[in-house]
Amino acid sequence: MASETLLHHVAALLDREGPTEGALAHAPSGMHFLRHSTPTGQDATVYRPLLCLVLQGAKEVGTSKRTLRVADGQSLIVSHALPVISRITQAAPDRPYVAVVFPIDLDLLRGMAADVPPGGSWSTQDTFSISLCPTDLEVEEALSRYLRQCENDEARRLLAPITAREIHARLLLGSHAEPLRRLLWHDSTASRIFRVTRDIQSDLARPIAVGDLAEKAGMSSSAFFEHFKSVTGTSPLQYQKDLRLLRARETLRNTNEKVSKVAFEVGYESSAQFSREYARKFGLPPRQDRALQAAE
Question: Residue 122: pLDDT above 70?
Answer without folding.
Answer: no
